[in-house]
Amino acid sequence: MRPHFSEAVAFARGTQTPSSFRTEADELQFGYDASFRAHAGYQLGGSGGIRFAYWNLQGDATVAGSVGMPGEFIVDPFGNVVGSVAIIDPSDARFGAVLTGGDEIHTRASVETNIYDLEFTREICARSRCWEAGLSFGARIADIEQFYGSVVTASNGAVVGQGEFSADFIGAGPRLGVYGRQYFGCNRRFSLFASCHGALLLGQYDVRADTMPVPGFQTGQAESLTRSVPVLETELGAAWRFSESVHVSVGWLFQAWFDMGASGGRFGGFFAGADDANVMSFDGMFLRTEFSF
Question: What is the pLDDT of residues 240-258, one digit of tens each?
């Protein structure tokens, strides 16, 4: 699985000259990481069942940077600077002052999501043993931990400025879904399937930011609030039935968690995001083996 964030900005890189001022974002690009899902269920008659599932989705990314030309600078979400930059905002009391920071920046971001689903499944349509469709309804509990950290250092390795941001969410709510499967072959050994689920979770959202704008001086800010988080997810894939009790399927999964794409930061007033979307999502290929008895 690979995480995505709507505004996954590691830091802003800019160029300042007497006649221009330009900035652009360096993105936190997460790679694909191994994750797992385990589920167990019980068939309630021929057209329904109950199922419990546990998911673990996670990812991390690191980005480093430095400047090499006059007029170049880097600023992190907490306002820590690499290189030198003059304040050009007339409303700032420091207007015209030149900020000089470190020589390198190192950033790290991570996310870990633990998901617990309990749902009932019900077949709602089947014709000529060639295809079937059904629905599911139940509940979801999610525990999400997000982290971002930035460290600006001088050429000798001394820390010039640093900051950390964390956002944790624990919530629960209903989950609904539909699925469909098309069988092929006289023995229905091969099939194509698709599913779509939605959930609405209500829970506690805790945010904390700690910075060290100058060596030896620390600042902190915390917030705790109740938040509702909509979730949408879909799976597309193919399955092969080796025997009556063994099924293997492969496909692609996509999840979108709204209002969980933690981002922001003031970037010292030198950079403002062009988009205000706030989505955390996952995508990736899955391989699933099912045993029935």
Answer: 998 889 999 999 999 999 9
Q: In the chain, at which residue ranges do the beta strands (DSSP E only) sit?
A: 2-5, 9-17, 20-27, 36-43, 48-66, 72-75, 81-86, 98-100, 104-127, 131-153, 159-184, 190-214, 217-241, 246-258, 279-291
Rounded distance between C-alpha atoms, residue 178 and residue 1, angstroms: 22
Number of domains in the chain: 1
Non-local (6+) Cβ contacts of 46 within 8 A are none
Separation between Cα atoms, residue 75 and residue 160, nearest integer Å: 12
Q: Residue 173: which residues within 8 A CB-CB, separation 6 or more?
A: 139, 140, 199, 200, 201, 202, 228
Residue-range definition of the domain harbouring residue 198: 2-291
Q: What is the pTM of this model?
A: 0.88
Q: How far apart are CA 24 and CA 57, in angstroms?
A: 30
- Provide the 8-state DSSP code for 267: G
Given the structure tokens 């499967």, which residue do they identify? 181
